[in-house]
Amino acid sequence: MMNAPLSLRPRHRGLSTTAIVYLALVAILVIGAVLVALSGRNLFSNANIVDLLTRSSLLGFIAIGQTLVILCRSLDLSVGYVMALSSLIAATTMNGEVSRIPIAIATALAVAAVIGLVNGLVVTKLKVNAFIATLGMGLIIKGYLDTNYAGPAGDVPEAFQAFGFTRIGPLPLSTIVMFAVAAVGIWFLHRSRTGHHMYAVGGDAEVARMSGVRTDRTVITAHILCALAAGVAGLLIASRFGTGSAAVYDDGYDLESIAAVVLGGTYLLGGRGGIGGTVGGVLILATLDSVFNTLSIDPFIKDVLRGVIIIAAVAIYARRSLTGAPTRRRFSERPPEPDIPTQPDDTRTEAADTGPAGGRT
Predict the structure, then answer these.
(1) Number of domains comprising the chain
(2) What's the pLDDT tens digit per position in 148-199?
(3) pTM, entire model
(4) Which of 36, 86, 101, 177 could form a disulfide with 43 if both were Cys (CB 3.0 to 4.6 A apart)?
(5) Which of 125, 90, 91 is CA-nearest to residue 110?
(6) Is residue 356 part of a domain?
(7) 307-356 pLDDT per residue, tens
């Protein structure tokens, strides 16, 4: 009996990209803890854990939204400006009054959603490259903020400041909310029709369109959700500072969120990845910051090391994608040929020497 073809043999799949991300996170935590211990400190002290989780929550909200647009083969460079604008809208609307908290939250998120809608429309209907479209939107918001806000503005009541400072054990409330948003995002991508469409559009927009997917609507939805996530980050900024702040758009959250998404294993050209890996990427960046700050590493060296780690991670993902064996059977592969009994050599020779009329040639 002939052996089964390679396409029908069971393949042992390696670790998923998300699993690799979290293994890298564990390795960085162990190495960082050792380095910090050699300096006579404890990376896992309560203060360091709170600092690490606090750092991760703000970037986490933005990176979760960024994951959605990158999966659709797009991106958003306006998230830092949307975050700053949302913080100012929320703080000035609250104006120190607890009764105005709901309307302030709704207004800030509504403005963020409108910005995301405009980004999506410009990208899909006007066919402007997402890099240019969202960068232009960010510059428009920057001009508005620089013209109307010379510094912090608004007054956030203490009741809302609890969002930024309340802790349940070592876990900040903001981090718990970020994990909850991530869980909803994972469910959305893997269980909802729109989530499946995002993967399809990122994989091949033309094939998705011919399959009946409304590609423009999917990309617009991704941009709206991304802007809403940046709006939530703006609410967190307002709760921590007690006021709105326009200066936060200079903190580089736009590029850092893209770095966290890519570090988490999401393919920059769309179609592959997910929010689970992004959360791991955010935690890796937050861990590196905590280790570098604890060791008092020079900021320039810190940025260089972070850049090297991100480039190395992306290179590993790219090499793994190129060398990984396909796990699905291709239609072009031929089915196995049945076993055909062969004639003895003398019979084949005799048949070859016999002419059409049955005589010998």
Answers:
(1) 1
(2) 987 888 899 999 998 988 898 888 999 999 999 999 999 999 999 999 999 9
(3) 0.83
(4) 36
(5) 90
(6) no
(7) 888 788 778 777 766 655 443 333 344 444 555 554 544 444 444 444 44
Token look-up 């203060």 returns: 47
Does residue 358 sit within a domain? no
Q: Is residue 351 in a domain?
A: no
